[in-house]
Design brief:
Layout lengths: L1 E4 L5 E5 L2 E5 L21 E3 L5 H4 L2 H8 L2 E3 L2 H9 L5 E2 L6 E4 L2 E7 L16 E7 L2 E5 L8 H8 L4 E5 L8 H11 L3 E5 L11 H10 L4 E2 L7 E3 L1
Parallel strand pairs: 3-4, 4-5, 5-6, 10-11, 11-12, 12-13
Antiparallel strand pairs: 1-2, 1-14, 2-3, 7-8, 8-9, 9-10
Bound molecules: nickel (II) ion and manganese (II) ion.
Length: about 230
Protein backbone atom coordinates (compact mmCIF):
# COMPACT_ATOMS: atom_id res chain seq x y z
CA UNK A 1 0.00 0.00 0.00
CA UNK A 2 1.35 3.39 -1.02
CA UNK A 3 0.16 6.90 -0.16
CA UNK A 4 1.38 9.61 -2.53
CA UNK A 5 0.85 13.27 -1.61
CA UNK A 6 0.03 15.93 -4.21
CA UNK A 7 -0.46 18.92 -1.90
CA UNK A 8 -3.40 20.29 0.15
CA UNK A 9 -5.71 17.26 0.77
CA UNK A 10 -5.02 15.29 -2.41
CA UNK A 11 -3.50 11.82 -2.12
CA UNK A 12 -3.26 8.81 -4.41
CA UNK A 13 -3.70 5.79 -2.13
CA UNK A 14 -2.78 2.67 -4.09
CA UNK A 15 -2.69 -1.08 -3.55
CA UNK A 16 -2.45 -3.66 -6.31
CA UNK A 17 -4.39 -2.29 -9.26
CA UNK A 18 -6.58 0.02 -7.17
CA UNK A 19 -6.04 3.74 -6.60
CA UNK A 20 -8.21 5.86 -4.34
CA UNK A 21 -7.71 9.54 -5.19
CA UNK A 22 -8.79 12.06 -2.54
CA UNK A 23 -9.86 15.69 -3.00
CA UNK A 24 -8.24 16.42 -6.38
CA UNK A 25 -6.68 19.92 -6.39
CA UNK A 26 -3.76 19.90 -8.79
CA UNK A 27 -1.57 22.04 -11.06
CA UNK A 28 -2.13 24.84 -11.97
CA UNK A 29 -5.04 25.35 -9.55
CA UNK A 30 -2.94 24.24 -6.57
CA UNK A 31 0.29 26.30 -6.44
CA UNK A 32 2.27 23.56 -4.62
CA UNK A 33 0.95 20.49 -6.48
CA UNK A 34 3.51 18.34 -8.31
CA UNK A 35 1.20 17.09 -11.08
CA UNK A 36 -1.75 18.12 -13.23
CA UNK A 37 -5.09 16.39 -13.45
CA UNK A 38 -3.78 14.60 -16.54
CA UNK A 39 -1.09 12.87 -14.49
CA UNK A 40 -3.04 11.12 -11.73
CA UNK A 41 -4.69 7.70 -11.67
CA UNK A 42 -7.96 6.84 -10.00
CA UNK A 43 -10.17 3.80 -9.57
CA UNK A 44 -12.28 5.65 -7.00
CA UNK A 45 -12.30 9.37 -6.15
CA UNK A 46 -13.30 10.10 -2.55
CA UNK A 47 -14.36 13.70 -1.89
CA UNK A 48 -14.59 15.21 1.60
CA UNK A 49 -16.53 18.38 0.69
CA UNK A 50 -17.19 20.87 -2.08
CA UNK A 51 -14.74 23.71 -1.45
CA UNK A 52 -12.66 24.58 -4.50
CA UNK A 53 -9.39 23.47 -2.88
CA UNK A 54 -10.88 19.94 -2.77
CA UNK A 55 -12.75 19.66 -6.07
CA UNK A 56 -11.12 22.04 -8.56
CA UNK A 57 -9.79 19.16 -10.71
CA UNK A 58 -12.46 16.64 -9.86
CA UNK A 59 -14.76 16.73 -12.88
CA UNK A 60 -12.11 16.40 -15.61
CA UNK A 61 -10.23 13.68 -13.70
CA UNK A 62 -13.45 11.74 -13.09
CA UNK A 63 -14.45 11.96 -16.75
CA UNK A 64 -10.99 11.00 -18.04
CA UNK A 65 -10.49 8.03 -15.68
CA UNK A 66 -14.10 6.83 -15.37
CA UNK A 67 -13.39 6.44 -11.66
CA UNK A 68 -16.34 6.06 -9.32
CA UNK A 69 -16.84 9.26 -7.30
CA UNK A 70 -17.86 8.76 -3.67
CA UNK A 71 -19.23 11.69 -1.68
CA UNK A 72 -22.05 12.52 0.73
CA UNK A 73 -25.42 12.44 -0.99
CA UNK A 74 -25.88 16.17 -1.70
CA UNK A 75 -22.41 16.59 -3.19
CA UNK A 76 -22.85 13.31 -5.08
CA UNK A 77 -26.02 14.75 -6.61
CA UNK A 78 -24.09 17.77 -7.87
CA UNK A 79 -21.47 15.46 -9.40
CA UNK A 80 -24.24 13.75 -11.34
CA UNK A 81 -25.35 17.18 -12.62
CA UNK A 82 -21.78 17.73 -13.87
CA UNK A 83 -22.16 14.70 -16.14
CA UNK A 84 -20.32 12.19 -13.96
CA UNK A 85 -22.25 8.93 -14.29
CA UNK A 86 -20.35 6.66 -11.91
CA UNK A 87 -21.26 8.08 -8.49
CA UNK A 88 -21.84 6.51 -5.06
CA UNK A 89 -23.81 8.65 -2.58
CA UNK A 90 -23.54 7.42 1.02
CA UNK A 91 -24.37 9.46 4.09
CA UNK A 92 -22.75 9.40 7.53
CA UNK A 93 -22.64 5.90 8.99
CA UNK A 94 -22.96 4.10 5.69
CA UNK A 95 -20.13 1.96 4.36
CA UNK A 96 -19.41 1.58 0.65
CA UNK A 97 -17.77 -1.79 0.08
CA UNK A 98 -15.50 -2.84 -2.78
CA UNK A 99 -13.66 -6.04 -3.60
CA UNK A 100 -10.48 -4.31 -2.33
CA UNK A 101 -11.85 -2.75 0.91
CA UNK A 102 -14.32 -0.06 1.96
CA UNK A 103 -14.94 3.66 2.44
CA UNK A 104 -17.00 5.15 5.26
CA UNK A 105 -17.87 8.81 5.76
CA UNK A 106 -17.60 10.32 9.24
CA UNK A 107 -18.33 13.80 10.58
CA UNK A 108 -16.04 16.79 10.19
CA UNK A 109 -16.61 20.21 11.76
CA UNK A 110 -16.35 22.67 8.88
CA UNK A 111 -18.66 24.31 6.33
CA UNK A 112 -19.53 23.07 2.85
CA UNK A 113 -20.23 24.99 -0.32
CA UNK A 114 -19.75 24.36 -4.01
CA UNK A 115 -17.13 26.45 -5.83
CA UNK A 116 -19.96 28.85 -6.86
CA UNK A 117 -20.84 29.42 -3.19
CA UNK A 118 -23.99 27.28 -3.03
CA UNK A 119 -24.38 25.58 0.36
CA UNK A 120 -24.33 21.81 -0.24
CA UNK A 121 -24.98 19.57 2.77
CA UNK A 122 -22.34 18.64 5.31
CA UNK A 123 -18.58 18.24 5.01
CA UNK A 124 -17.03 14.90 5.96
CA UNK A 125 -14.00 12.96 6.97
CA UNK A 126 -13.31 9.64 5.26
CA UNK A 127 -12.21 6.24 6.52
CA UNK A 128 -10.56 4.32 3.69
CA UNK A 129 -9.72 0.63 4.13
CA UNK A 130 -7.31 -0.61 1.48
CA UNK A 131 -4.46 -3.11 1.49
CA UNK A 132 -5.42 -4.26 4.98
CA UNK A 133 -4.88 -0.75 6.43
CA UNK A 134 -7.44 1.75 7.64
CA UNK A 135 -6.66 5.36 6.79
CA UNK A 136 -8.55 8.26 8.39
CA UNK A 137 -8.50 11.25 6.03
CA UNK A 138 -10.04 13.83 8.36
CA UNK A 139 -11.03 16.28 5.61
CA UNK A 140 -11.20 19.94 6.66
CA UNK A 141 -12.10 20.03 10.34
CA UNK A 142 -11.43 21.55 13.70
CA UNK A 143 -10.55 19.33 16.63
CA UNK A 144 -13.57 17.47 18.04
CA UNK A 145 -14.02 14.83 20.70
CA UNK A 146 -15.75 12.24 18.52
CA UNK A 147 -12.45 11.60 16.75
CA UNK A 148 -11.95 9.26 19.73
CA UNK A 149 -15.18 7.43 18.98
CA UNK A 150 -14.40 7.21 15.27
CA UNK A 151 -11.05 5.56 16.03
CA UNK A 152 -12.51 3.34 18.77
CA UNK A 153 -15.06 1.91 16.34
CA UNK A 154 -12.64 1.75 13.39
CA UNK A 155 -9.04 1.31 14.58
CA UNK A 156 -6.93 3.64 12.46
CA UNK A 157 -3.48 2.71 11.13
CA UNK A 158 -2.71 5.98 9.38
CA UNK A 159 -4.26 9.35 10.31
CA UNK A 160 -4.10 12.11 7.70
CA UNK A 161 -4.77 15.39 9.52
CA UNK A 162 -5.02 19.05 8.53
CA UNK A 163 -2.50 21.19 10.40
CA UNK A 164 -2.48 24.55 8.61
CA UNK A 165 -4.90 26.44 10.87
CA UNK A 166 -7.12 29.33 9.73
CA UNK A 167 -9.58 27.12 7.76
CA UNK A 168 -9.01 23.98 9.85
CA UNK A 169 -7.42 22.96 13.14
CA UNK A 170 -3.85 24.17 13.58
CA UNK A 171 -0.78 22.06 14.32
CA UNK A 172 -1.31 22.37 18.08
CA UNK A 173 -4.91 21.08 18.03
CA UNK A 174 -3.81 18.43 15.53
CA UNK A 175 -1.45 17.00 18.17
CA UNK A 176 -4.48 16.38 20.39
CA UNK A 177 -6.31 14.88 17.41
CA UNK A 178 -3.41 12.46 16.94
CA UNK A 179 -3.64 11.53 20.63
CA UNK A 180 -7.41 10.94 20.31
CA UNK A 181 -7.00 8.76 17.20
CA UNK A 182 -4.00 6.72 18.32
CA UNK A 183 -2.72 5.77 14.87
CA UNK A 184 0.81 4.42 14.45
CA UNK A 185 1.44 6.84 11.58
CA UNK A 186 0.30 10.44 11.16
CA UNK A 187 0.59 12.35 7.87
CA UNK A 188 -0.08 16.12 7.87
CA UNK A 189 -2.06 17.82 5.09
CA UNK A 190 -3.71 21.18 4.28
CA UNK A 191 -0.66 23.35 5.03
CA UNK A 192 1.80 25.64 3.19
CA UNK A 193 -0.43 25.85 0.10
CA UNK A 194 -1.30 29.52 0.70
CA UNK A 195 0.01 32.11 3.19
CA UNK A 196 -2.92 31.78 5.67
CA UNK A 197 -2.16 28.07 6.20
CA UNK A 198 1.62 28.22 6.44
CA UNK A 199 2.88 26.27 9.44
CA UNK A 200 5.88 24.36 10.78
CA UNK A 201 5.33 20.68 9.94
CA UNK A 202 8.64 19.77 11.59
CA UNK A 203 7.41 21.23 14.88
CA UNK A 204 4.16 19.25 14.49
CA UNK A 205 6.21 16.08 14.01
CA UNK A 206 8.29 16.82 17.12
CA UNK A 207 5.21 17.56 19.21
CA UNK A 208 3.27 14.44 18.14
CA UNK A 209 6.25 12.15 18.58
CA UNK A 210 7.13 13.84 21.90
CA UNK A 211 3.58 13.13 23.10
CA UNK A 212 3.87 9.47 22.06
CA UNK A 213 0.95 9.92 19.66
CA UNK A 214 2.47 8.14 16.66
CA UNK A 215 5.23 8.60 14.09
CA UNK A 216 4.76 11.57 11.80
CA UNK A 217 5.65 11.29 8.12
CA UNK A 218 5.86 14.75 6.54
CA UNK A 219 5.43 14.38 2.77
CA UNK A 220 6.32 17.05 0.20
CA UNK A 221 4.15 17.07 -2.93
CA UNK A 222 5.32 14.15 -5.06
CA UNK A 223 6.58 12.09 -2.11
CA UNK A 224 5.13 8.75 -1.00
CA UNK A 225 4.79 6.68 2.14
CA UNK A 226 4.67 2.87 1.92
CA UNK A 227 3.09 0.67 4.58
NI1 LIG B 1 -12.86 23.46 3.15
MN1 LIG C 1 -9.79 23.13 2.39
Amino acid sequence: MEIKFHGQSCFEISDGGTTVLTDPFLKPNNPIADVTGEEVEATVIAISHGHADHVADLVPVAKRTGAQCVALVELAGWLGEQGIENVSDPNFGGTVTYDWGWIKFVPAWHTNTLPDGTVIGNPAGMLINIGGKTIYHAGDTCLFGDMKLIAERNPVDIAILPIGGHYTMDRHDAVVAAQFIGADTVIPMHFNTFPPIETDAGAFKADVEGAGAGSVVVLEPGESFRA
